[in-house]
Amino acid sequence: MKNLAILLCATLLLSSCSSSQNKNKSQKPANPETYAKTITANELKDMLYTYASDEFEGRKTGEPGQKKAIEFLKSKYVAAGIPSPIAEGDYFQEIPESFFKGDIKASENVLAYIEGSEKPDEIIIISAHLDHIGISKNGDINNGADDDGSGTIAVLEIAEAFKAAEKDGHGPKRSILFLHVTGEEVGLYGSRYYADEDPIFPLKNTVVDLNIDMIGRVDPKHEGGKNYLYLIGSDKLSKELHNISEEINKKHSNLEFDYTYNDDNDPNRFYYRSDHYNFAKNNIPVIFYFNGTHADYHRPSDTPDKINYEFLETRTRLIFYTAWELANRDERIKLD
């Protein structure tokens, strides 16, 4: 009996030590590189060849192809186990026809989210527009692989990376909203509806919007050069955001950041021409990620075979790293 008691004590001690070791192991800070590696050129390519295919008919706002696009996005979030913040199984924020000007039918934003583990009321938004310009008068389909198929599938891959981290016990401290907006091509309607009419999360709790609109190609200025991105808006409302963005890039990605279009006197006025602007006008810091225009912009020739998938992988990972830092830092970034 004495030997049995000793054996039981030893077993309990070993079990306790093992439990303590496992607990300590789980408390180690997560390495974002582990999850960034789940974002791959092959997965991006596979999704984009579907999303920018003729089946989606150019994804024109309110038209059948756009309805196919939102069902595609919903299916990806359901398969990944990433819920909607609207209601269980309801990923669509309905926008009535009356909200649009002109001959545009009712449409939908697509929303999914991962709830924060420590600061769930503070929201990081990662956005991209799901629509494109549809079918030309001569019957050619505008597939919009770069504009903005590239941004759309980047958001999906980033969401799956954060979900993988959450499954490992490393969910983000702040909540992350994956926001696919409609109606960008006809006047930024989807983002305006979210920001002005029906913000699912209060705008005062929204920390930042990282907006991704065209990140799969190389513009003429950068042909033959290293991987790059144009960044727009990063310093306009929060110098801290700009500095964090620069630090994260140097630490993880080493892209060439081009701020040409961030100039207040930029004649293209890109700062006002994508969905981040509807957050910026509400004093929410933003970064707009953009590869610049090219000969296939808004043409049927914007097809998935012309995407630089290695560049797209690195760019998507960069945005993931930035979102990771903003979601997990102790204090939310400050407005200037």
UniProtKB/TrEMBL annotation:
Pfam families: Peptidase_M28. Residues 109-321 form the Peptidase M28 domain. InterPro entries: EF_Hand_1_Ca_BS (IPR018247), M28_fam (IPR045175), Peptidase_M28 (IPR007484). GO terms for molecular function: metalloexopeptidase activity. GO terms for biological process: proteolysis. CDD domains: M28_like_PA. PROSITE patterns: EF_HAND_1 (PS00018), PROKAR_LIPOPROTEIN (PS51257). Residues 1-20 form the signal peptide. Keywords: Signal. This is Peptidase family M28.
